[in-house]
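Phosphotyrosine protein phosphatase I domain-containing protein
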Amino acid sequence: MAEALLKAKKLPNVEVKSAGVFAANGSSASTQATEALLEKGISHQHSSQVLDLELINWATHILTMGESHKQMVVAQSPRAIEKTFTLKEYVQGIKEDIADPFGGSLSIYRYTLEELNELIDKLGEKII
């Protein structure tokens, strides 16, 4: 959902790629994620990919949803420590995870989408 929101905002000079530390290559977004995005007028064709060294090296910034994800990125590539942050850490300067809606109801996905939307709006203000 974060990737879809970032792409929908069309921030200048920002290219977005989504990858997961627990993802399986080629999976589509959950029905709940797709529905929550469609309610916001965002249509997004998602195909998951596993985070790998090529993506880590490609990125100028790596923003994770939680601290455990951040630690897994850094464990995979210790040099990435300088460019890896949780989204809340980068935007708000706080150490707090974004709740993972995986397996939850549509209302939980809506809640997470709203949280992401607010953070990504602030991210857009910070990087422009």
